[in-house]
Amino acid sequence: MENLMCCDVSFNFNSIPSSSLNHTFRFPVSSTLTNNNHRSCLSFVRAHQSEASDGSAIDGDSKVDTNKEWKVRNSQDEIAATQGIRIRRRPPTGPPLHYVGPFEFRLQNEGNTPRNILEEIVWNKDVEVAQLRGKKPLFSLKKAVDNAPPPRDFIGALKASYLRTGMPALIAEVKKASPSRGVLREDFDPVEIAKAYKNGGAACLSVSTDQKYFQGSYENLEAIRNAGVKCPLLCKEFIVDAWQLYYARAKGADAVSLIAAILPDLDIKYMTKICKMIGLTVLVEVQDENEMDRILGIDGIELIGINNRNLETFEVDISNTKKLLEGERGEKIRQKDIIVVGESGLFTPADVAYVQEAGVKAILVGESIVKQKDPTKGIAELFGKDISVPTALA
Hints:
alpha/beta
């Protein structure tokens, strides 16, 4: 029995009669399991060996608890789906577990595979945050937040830049790589890039902190803050848990981004309140009409980013900005005095002029300037003019 290992089995449950799901399944065990699967399977085996060391079957309560957890997770995704959210926050745990004596087996199905790159990122982020929370519990972060440098006025910096230049304020992104483009800059020094952006006239900086897909880090954010770069800092992250807000603030962030494509309205409301309590500005990112309508229905939103990149397909279309600012939506944004940020696909002065005419007062740009040998000159080329702050005003 000690040599027995469990395995994941790919199977389409749509082809199985519902009555069959009540039966116990027995499968030959593959000897080609990866180390990770081997370890995770053994943890299940050992747990159930200890629970049934007398050789008895697993009791019904364990099965009921598993079923409840599965139902709760699926109901959360169902609620999100009613708001047009297609991204599942975590992989479905699958149908109820099947037991063979003291061992449990879970049949994997196609529902446990990410449907697009954004869902894959979100699922990985959920695991990553759970691990970080275990190492840095919230109570320890609250003390770090209290000791963090005071937050700077992110929105104030955008408004001041817009008034000074008459052009959209620049949120320049410190980003080494992206899933769609790969590595953008090999000689990546986040502090030097941040300084070059500041010298080029950036009002604020966006620092990518996702490590797996963007090769970023919170250490980059912290280093830029500690280096004395005066621009307010946006933590560009895939926020799936309120714990991340405290962590970002503790690392020196002045603002965070929340993505409407993955967060239901209630989460956005809740996280926005937390951000206000700890001094973070919130930039809510939307990519279509449904997401824009949802966010406009939430009180207290001051900053909306329109992403011209479809986060599921990564296709880019800058006309998306104009489409989302036309008609009643544009009027409501003006009435609420919300600053709109144009994001993605901006490479030329014509692109900047296009989104400005559509109604944006700020732009978030990374690729087109971080790839330049001299990012300071890259900013001037993007705007078609020098927008740096005169020395007397710097």
